[in-house]
Design brief:
Layout (H helix, E strand, L loop, with lengths): L1 H4 L16 H11 L21 H6 L7
Length: 66
């Protein structure tokens, strides 16, 4: 991935925080089966065990956008 993106000179981040979760595996399978179609954007929400502070929530774009 690094070699393919380097000539484009764009910022990129790769996250694998939940790749082994059953729900993520199910999503991948459904995409591969053609049940969902070609994804353009995958935006996920994570439910942490503790609520973040209100100051954080007011300024944040969300856990997956920070």
């Amino acid at each position: 991935m690094v070699d393919r993106l380097a000539p484009l000179r764009v910022a990129v981040t790769v996250g694998f925080n939940r790749r082994f979760d059953a729900s993520h595996q199910q999503l991948r399978q459904r995409i591969q089966q053609g049940a969902i179609g070609a994804p353009e954007l995958v935006q996920m929400a994570c439910r942490a065990s503790q609520m973040p502070s209100l100051d954080y929530l007011r300024a944040s774009g969300g856990q997956m956008r920070d």
